[in-house]
Specification:
Number of strands: 0
Structural class: mainly alpha
Oligomer: single chain
Number of helices: 4
Largest sheet: none
Strand content: under 5%
Order of helices and strands: HHHH
Helix content: over 70%
Distance between the termini: 21 Å
């Protein structure tokens, strides 16, 4: 029995909606976490005494790590 057939046997046709809802919630979580990092940029600059270029690299690195994580967990 394949994994899809096992999910269908356990949840019925509702498993597709559950999988869609899980994907939508995770996409919203990624957007919210990237928003949190962007809002924190001025505080990070002040706390660590770094310039805007370095803190933007920090935000870019965070988004790159999130992207790699999303691609690996597909």
């Amino acid at each position: 029995m394949s994994q899809t057939e096992a999910l269908f046997a356990r949840y019925g046709s509702m498993y597709r909606w559950l999988a869609t809802a899980a994907a939508m919630v995770s996409a919203i979580a990624v957007v919210l976490s990237s928003t949190i990092v962007n809002v924190a940029v001025p505080a990070i600059m002040g706390q660590f005494g770094i310039d805007q270029t370095r803190v933007q690299w920090l935000a870019t690195g965070f988004l790159a790590a999130m992207t790699v994580t999303m691609l690996l967990s597909a």
